[in-house]
């Protein structure tokens, strides 16, 4: 079974489109899908991180509005003029954009969808229905494109590692040689429309028989690594080992010779290559440089923000202190059985009254990044600088 965090059904002759999301707060112990019918529901699901990951956030927001407007089409409630529908779409998109600030994919999707609505409303025969249908078709296209983009990212990344790392070249010659990769946070099917970015590279390396083992960090404080990436790796039968974030240096010291790369995702890549990603990414990049291991960012072009000059201009989301001071999960019986059907317990892990700083992301300077893997190829620095402009001339 293919893992899917986003289940979308287009409209049929009798029913409106529908959207369900996998509630990632309940993973890895419970697989529960939740209906999303309105922008308010999508906004809440994104803010609470029932759905998370830069591309997934953008797609769920886009599709939630498709569902909302699609229901109005079927119920024949869209009696207003084309221009009024365009305005409504713009307002709803702006509202959705306020759900989380750091990932650029949502802002990118909002910008593109506004252009779709504007263009549709400008057509000579435009009606409220035609504007709504143009919006719905564009949102649905985003879901489809994200999966094919991720597969391309996976292939480009796997080939780059094979050709540009000592470990990759060795493994290519002799499949008995070890090739391991470390990743951080969750960048897989749960964070995207499917397959994943950094986890897509791991999947592609595995499919090409180039990977002997993946390591994933726990990714404190939200544990996207231990809860979600570990779940995906186990699901796909990829040999994998979980480490806590603080073990990364020891791992690199021990496994440096067979660790081909650290591959991470991104929430926003600035024009100069500085990259905002899950907190802890910057430390891994420093470690990679110290140990002579390649550090790669895997991200679709929708994550590259040419409008943001450098990392200094990226807003970093700060989240609730309780994410650091408490942990939530199911109880475990004395015999080791996980009580998945009972309500999860919340456990306190810190001294009451302590102040907490909880930035959800950090910015890795471009200097520490060896390559940015996109769906149209891997960008490396030329004369010490990344240049992404030409990526957007390719289809
Ligand atoms: O806070 P999250 O879980 O939304 O953070 C997700 C990450 O930082 C991912 O690494 C990033 O969005 C890339 S997802 C393909």
TrEMBL record:
Q: Name one GO molecular function term.
A: S-methyl-5-thioribose-1-phosphate isomerase activity
Which residues are listed as membrane-spanning? 56-75
Q: Where is the protein localized? A: Cytoplasm; Nucleus
Answer whether the UniProt record assigns the keyword Signal to this protein. no
UniProt GO cellular component terms:
cytoplasm; nucleus
Q: Which PANTHER family match?
A: METHYLTHIORIBOSE-1-PHOSPHATE ISOMERASE
**Can you state which reaction this protein catalyses?**
5-(methylsulfanyl)-alpha-D-ribose 1-phosphate = 5-(methylsulfanyl)-D-ribulose 1-phosphate
Which named protein is this? Answer: Methylthioribose-1-phosphate isomerase
Q: What is its EC number?
A: 5.3.1.23
Q: Which HAMAP family match?
A: Salvage_MtnA (MF_01678)
Gene coding for it:
MRI1
Q: What species is given as this protein's source?
A: Exophiala oligosperma
Biochemical pathway: Amino-acid biosynthesis; L-methionine biosynthesis via salvage pathway; L-methionine from S-methyl-5-thio-alpha-D-ribose 1-phosphate: step 1/6
Q: What class of enzyme is it?
A: isomerase
Q: Which Pfam families match?
A: IF-2B (PF01008)
Q: Which Gene3D superfamilies match?
A: translation initiation factor eif-2b, domain 1, Translation initiation factor eif-2b, domain 2
Q: Which InterPro entries does its entry note?
A: IF-2B-related, IF-M1Pi, IF_2B-like_C, Initiation_fac_2B_a/b/d, M1Pi_N, NagB/RpiA_transferase-like
Active-site residue numbers: 267
Q: Name one GO biological process term.
A: L-methionine salvage from methylthioadenosine
Report the main location listed first in the record.
cytoplasm
Transition state stabilizer (site feature) positions? 185
């Amino acid at each position: 079974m293919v893992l899917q965090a986003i289940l979308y059904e287009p409209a049929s002759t009798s029913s409106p489109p529908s959207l369900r999301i996998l509630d990632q707060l309940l993973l890895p112990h419970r697989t529960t899908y939740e209906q999303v019918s309105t922008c308010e529901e999508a906004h809440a699901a994104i803010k609470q991180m029932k759905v998370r990951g830069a591309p997934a956030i953008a797609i769920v927001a886009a599709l939630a509005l498709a569902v909302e407007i699609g229901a109005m089409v079927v119920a024949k409630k869209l009696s207003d003029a084309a221009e009024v529908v365009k305005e409504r779409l713009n307002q709803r998109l702006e509202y959705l954009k306020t759900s989380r600030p750091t990932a650029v994919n949502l802002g990118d999707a909002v910008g593109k969808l506004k252009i779709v609505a504007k263009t549709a409303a400008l057509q000579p025969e435009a009606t409220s229905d035609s504007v709504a249908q143009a919006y719905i078709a564009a949102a649905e296209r985003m879901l489809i494109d994200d999966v094919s983009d991720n597969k391309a990212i996976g292939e480009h990344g796997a080939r780059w590692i094979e050709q540009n790392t000592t470990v990759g070249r060795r493994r290519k010659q002799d499949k008995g040689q070890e090739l391991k990769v470390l990743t951080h946070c969750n960048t897989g099917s749960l964070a995207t429309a499917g397959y994943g970015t950094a986890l897509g590279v791991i999947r592609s390396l595995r499919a090409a028989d180039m990977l002997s083992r993946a390591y994933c960090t726990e990714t404190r404080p939200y544990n996207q690594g231990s809860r979600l990436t570990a779940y995906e790796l186990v699901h796909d039968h990829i040999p994998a080992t979980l480490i806590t974030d603080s073990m990364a240096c020891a791992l690199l010291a021990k496994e440096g010779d067979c660790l081909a790369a650290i591959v991470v995702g991104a929430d926003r890549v600035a024009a100069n290559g500085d990259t905002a990603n899950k907190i802890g990414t910057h430390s891994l990049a420093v470690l990679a440089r110290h140990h002579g291991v390649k550090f790669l960012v895997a991200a679709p072009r929708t994550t590259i923000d040419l409008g943001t000059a450098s990392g200094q201009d990226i807003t970093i989301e700060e989240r609730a202190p309780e994410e650091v001071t408490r942990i939530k999960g199911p109880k475990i019986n004395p015999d080791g059985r996980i009580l998945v059907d009972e309500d999860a317990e919340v456990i306190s892990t810190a001294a009451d009254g302590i102040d907490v700083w909880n930035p959800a992301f950090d910015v890795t300077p471009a200097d520490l990044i060896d390559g940015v893997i996109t769906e149209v190829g891997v960008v490396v620095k030329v004369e010490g600088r990344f240049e992404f402009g030409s990526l957007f001339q390719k289809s």
